[in-house]
Amino acid sequence: MARDGAVYACQSCGAVQTKWAGQCPACSAWNSLVEELQSRPPGALAPSKASRTRGLVFEGLEDETPAPPRIATGVEEFDRVCGGGVVPGSAILLGGDPGVGKSTLLLQVAAQAALRGARCAYISGEEAVEQVRARAQRMGLADAPVKLAAETSLRDIVDGLKREGFDLVVIDSIQTLWSDAHEAGPGSVTQVRAATGELVRLAKKRGVAIVLVGHVTKEGTIAGPRVIEHMVDAVLAFEGERGYPFRILRGAKNRFGATDEIGVFEMGDAGLAEVKNPSALFLNTSGERAAGAAVFAGIEGSRPVLVEFQALVAPSAYGTPRRAVVGWDNGRLAMVLAVLEARCGLSLGDRDVYLNVAGGLRITEPAADLAAAAALASSALDEALPQDCVVFGEISLSGEVRSVSRMDARLKEAAKLGFRRALGPADLDGGGAREVVGVSRLADAVRRIGEGGWN
Ligand code: TYD
Ligand code: MG
Question: 405 Cβ partners below 8 Å, 6+ apart?
């Protein structure tokens, strides 16, 4: 039986329940509901303070608002993902797994911005000032006029920030802050929400840009940054594969810019180095691409991502040819093979076919049809695709190549990674610099691949 005023907040998704349960009804996480005391029943409005408000005032859409000014931090990959610098008065959430390099990135951002004249503070709730200073020295940033503090009390942080004028403040991390106005422990949904709310208000009121670090946890033992995504102006994700030095900064939400930009960094002994030409990192871009390989420009969730489809078409030693596929749908492969056979005159029925999506990704988008077909045709005809070409398009049973969503985003990501060519649907618009082969029928794509002679 719930006590009066008690509610149960899921530490994973933030959903609030009036009854405890072993599994969160909203996100199905186990053991994630924690009792939190509410001063008011959920849904009740705060007592009216009519004397202090000025009432509802309407304005027109046509009224002019100048574009927001930006603080260029000097870390260009970061600035670009933010939409061309950090907007004063905005709140940015930087999420990522522990150890991926969030503290390193933001210390670098604060230091570079400070060297360019911005008034910057770096407040750590996880490390002592000496540790932060030692890290800055190792990264060659000891001269940057950044003000450091180690603090977890929200009240002290807010008071301190009100006292001193700053342009950019990093709070590392939001999960370590606690406010004495709430009973719940640091890292709980209540505390994380309260701290974010207070800091966002302060940012807006004082025109200071605040960057909050949020650890992403899969277990849900501390509140994930998801519960505060709606409160901030921009959500950035910092990602990296274990064992690889490369880190990718992506925008997941941005009220002041696009979200299809990525920033690429390399973690080294002296911190994060910006990678200006990342094409070589993810895909084999040096030399010729082997016959049977096609790079698919896909969209994973909201994000563009390039992956390589690898196909091998070989004579079969058995009566029943083998079909093996990793990372793509079996049924889809059968369909593409049938269309290649029936509409393009490629006879594959008596041959073994292997198809593999490199890197362990699983692709579910119909837009990958043409990439798979191109890889298969390339292997069957023993003609390689050009190494700087991406492929995407949906294939219909009649052999048509159909348009797919977000073609601009795909081309933009491809161009960012050094791919200047694309093979895709007929309505593909190269937009100037890119060389685009638009085909309305799969047979045209197969013919073009068979001709070879790309330069
Ligand atoms: P950190 O920024 O502390 O990660 P987060 O704040 O996201 O938890 O980075 C931690 C990792 O980065 C750690 O494993 C060591 C590595 N690192 C380097 O390789 N070189 C460096 O110069 C720095 C500062 C960190
Ligand atoms: Mg850290």
Answer: 299, 367
Phi, psi of 334 (to 5 degrees): -60, -40
The 10s digit of each residue's pLDDT in 239-251 is 876 666 778 888 8
- B/e letters for 307-341, b = 16+ CB within 10 Å, e = fewer, are bbbbbbbeeeeeeebeeebebbbeebbebbbebbe
263: amino acid identity, one letter: G
- Residue 413, pLDDT above cutoff 90: no
Digit-coded pLDDT (tens) for 236-290: 988 876 666 778 888 888 888 877 677 878 898 889 998 765 555 556 555 667 8
Q: Tell me what the mean pLDDT of segment 101-130 comes to.
A: 95
Ligand 1 centre from 60 Cα, in Å?
48
Query: 78: closest CA among 249, 307, 301, 280?
Result: 249
Phi, psi of 199 (to 5 degrees): -70, -35
247 CA from centroid of ligand 1 (Å): 11
Which residue from 174, 222, 267, 274 has its CB within 8 A of the most atoms of ligand 1, so it is best to mutate?
267
**CATH fold for the domain made of 70-276:** Rossmann fold (3.40.50)
Dist. CA 125–CA 123, nearest whole Å = 7
Residues in the chain: 455
| CATH architecture, domain 281-451 | 2-Layer Sandwich (3.30)
| 70-79, 222-231, 249-258: the lowest-pLDDT one | 222-231
Which ligand 1 atom minimizes the distance to the CA of 107? Answer: 2
Q: Please check whether residue 454 is in contact with residue 385, taking contact to mean a CB–CB distance below 8 angstroms.
A: yes
Sign of the CA dihedral 284, 289, 290, 293? positive
Residues 393, 401: Cα–Cα separation, whole Å = 6
Q: Is the pLDDT of residue 38 over 80?
A: no
Contact 165, 187 (CB under 8 A): no
Whole-number Cα distances in Å, 61 to 67, 100, 161: 15, 42, 34
